[in-house]
Amino acid sequence: MDLSNNRFDSAIPTGVVNLKDLTHFSLSNNRITGLIPESFGELLNLEFLDLSRNNLSGEIPKSLEKPRYLKYFNVSFNGLEGTWKRISYHELHRATDGFSRSKLLGNGSYGSVYHGTLSYGITFAVKVFKLELEGAFKSFDVECEVLRNTRHRNLIKIISSCSNDLDFKALVLEFMPNGSLDKWLYSNNHFLDILQRLNIMIDVASALEYLHHGNETPFVHCDLKPCNILLDEDMVAHLSDFGIAKLLCNEDSMIQTITMATVGYMAPDYGIDGIVSTKGDVYSFGILLMETVTRKKPTDEMFTGERSLKSWVKESISSTLLNQVVDMNLLSTNGREHSAANNCTLSILQVALECSAESPDERLNTKEIVTKLEKIKTKFLKNTKRVRQRLT
């Protein structure tokens, strides 16, 4: 049934669900409004469903997991397009050479991530959940929930999922060819200049701003660190791994929980009392900013006892020791450019300390962080342009 390219401006007709043998259905390029009916899940023989270029609202109903043959699903919500393809276990197995070690991109708390290429040329990353671990089922459900309900250029995009209830659960994600921020910071074969690092931090801050303030229900990531920040072919950063993310009731709320987070990035209010709020993400972002500029992990062996990455940075920027904490790779041989880069890194570290204040009430919010980092970037570009003009 093809009803595309008309001027229908009402809701999707519910009578469609009576066509039990329907395999292909298109309502694309109309003015359809309202929700996708839950009853579409009763169309068990559906293979192709195109609802794109309409003005739908709400969410993709979970019942659409039921049609066993559904291979193509294209939908738009108020102009936001998204194509979803169902990929079978056998396709994933073949595309990753049987989930071989040669295709392994990395391991996380609840899953392993592989690189794959489908027979028709699409490359992807697939996160296969370790279902033998306690919490893996919940992690899969949470990550599906977050990725299904969020759309932002700096968040990793879900292509599909693959699940057979008890034996196998996986998320098929867009592939990030430049790997993680962790790789770029700590590999001897890679280098990021100060502007690239600043751009990446602005991308991550923008993703957090969207998660905290861009949805009716705020999301808290809970596990911000370099290996969860992935870079595409243009070095644009995408925040990933929402396996322990939490949903709050409103922007000002907090919840108490017992969950896994990464030592060194965890806010004190989270670690001691299990309090999860958007301000916990802000604290982690502050530590991430310091790590990105200093190229020192918060778990580095030099940080023992009372000494931490935060205290080390705080002591150094309040004296004349800034060059001792900044990554040596960022130090320019040109005096004037060195001064511009120094001023930039100092400003970034000051924002980092504001983010990582001990009291949650004293921390910045993500809207303020984005604004401050954008101003630092503008000033740095202006200063370096002036220096280069003088040199020529």
From TrEMBL:
Keyword Transferase: yes
Catalysed reactions, as listed in the record: L-threonyl-[protein] + ATP = O-phospho-L-threonyl-[protein] + ADP + H(+); L-seryl-[protein] + ATP = O-phospho-L-seryl-[protein] + ADP + H(+)
Keyword vocabulary terms for this entry: ATP-binding, Cell membrane, Glycoprotein, Kinase, Leucine-rich repeat, Membrane, Nucleotide-binding, Phosphoprotein, Receptor, Repeat, Serine/threonine-protein kinase, Signal, Transferase, Transmembrane, Transmembrane helix
GO cellular component: plasma membrane
Membrane-topology annotation of the record: Single-pass membrane protein; Single-pass type I membrane protein
Annotated positions binding ATP: 127
Recorded GO MF terms: ATP binding; protein serine/threonine kinase activity
Enzyme Commission (EC) number: 2.7.11.1
Positions of the Protein kinase domain: 99-381
SMART domains xref list: S_TKc
Subcellular localization: Cell membrane; Membrane
PROSITE patterns, sorted: LRR (PS51450), PROTEIN_KINASE_ATP (PS00107), PROTEIN_KINASE_DOM (PS50011), PROTEIN_KINASE_ST (PS00108)
Keyword Glycosyltransferase found: no
Domain of life: Eukaryota
PANTHER family on file: OS04G0122200 PROTEIN, PROTEIN KINASE DOMAIN-CONTAINING PROTEIN
Family indicated by similarity: Belongs to the RLP family. Belongs to the protein kinase superfamily.
UniProt-recorded name of the protein: non-specific serine/threonine protein kinase
Organism of provenance: Hibiscus syriacus
